[in-house]
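Input/output pair, single chain:
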Amino acid sequence: MTDVSIPPQPWMGASATRAVMTALEAAGGSDCARFVGGCVRNALLGRPVDDIDIATTLTPDQVMQALTDAGVRWAPTGVEHGTVTAIAEGLPYEITTLRRDVSTDGRRAVVAFSQDWAEDARRRDFRLNALYMDGEGRVFDPLGHGVSDAKAGRIVFVGDPITRIREDYLRILRFFRFQAWYGRGEPDPAAVAACKALKGMLSGRSAERTSKELLKLLAAEDPRAAVALMRDTGVLAAILPEAAPERFNALVEIETGKLYENDPELRLAALLPQDAGEAIRVAERLRLSNAQRDRLAAALASEPRIVAWLSPRAVRRAVYRLGVRATHDRIKLAWAAAPQAKLAGQWRKLLALAESWSPPEFPLTGDDVIAAGLPKGPLVGRALKEVEDWWVDEDFPIDRTLALAQLKRVTLGLGEA
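Output:
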């Protein structure tokens, strides 16, 4: 069923895209390959397109041969499920053969390849994702609801929601993610009921996929309604029992003023208690990267205490000790925890100072300590630490002679000790 046509998009006419589509069409004809899913949905809505997926009637072996014949690189990223990734001009294009599910256990599916576009559409998650488009911009909506759902902001499962979720339990989180990004108005009651009924099945699912879905949800411009719905259905507690949305809601309110970038990792931190140890445990449970774990822990440490009336000197001290990002995170979270409107200007000043000040380099080295008379050994590090603490407390004086004078006093004290 062809519902609408989309004006040519830059990504559709790009040489890399045309190279892939031409290779497939040379092997299977002009109607063997269509764009599918998110790129079609976003093009329809006038939103940016990041990933370009293609559906085809060609089998994976035929796809690989077609790309080889056309001189296009490829990788067998999921051949058992019908997926080959073409790499043209350094860009990936995921190409998947039309298919139907033979069996599934909620994690993995056994599929059979198909030539039927409607059959392929019926195995997809939401109706607004069951859309296909040819190279001329003609949109195909085999189920008859995808275009209208996309335009109305309705997130509706294909067919029976319980059945769709049982095929892959992480579709529960995908429902809330799509609700955050594309949903408008009241959420679909059948979808909400199914997610609530099956929330217990999220336990034991892939931690990496869970955290990926959660962070994508939190990256939406305003995910507060979706997170509230997750809380009300018990889904939030099923994946993040530590979550408390109050500070999170205030942080999103701060960010939606367009002065600051939406930050999914910081929003995750805002959902958690102010406890670095708890942050590390959550990060490990969700299998976050080491960098993400360390960021959460630094953001949720309790010291130094951040308040709206922090002095410029204290901000510089925090930046030197914690780093720019951690100080920025701590200020934002403190602001969200005490979001009185009358203090907004002060919080903004703290953020501006933290982001604009570049910490100087400590002017002394171990050689300076040895030259001052201390022998090599642990006392050298101790002396450097004491002088550095003085230097930070004095607000980073640039005159090296002052630091050397302080080093002399420290070394005398240590020598006497």
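The mean pLDDT is 92. Residues 366-416 form one domain.
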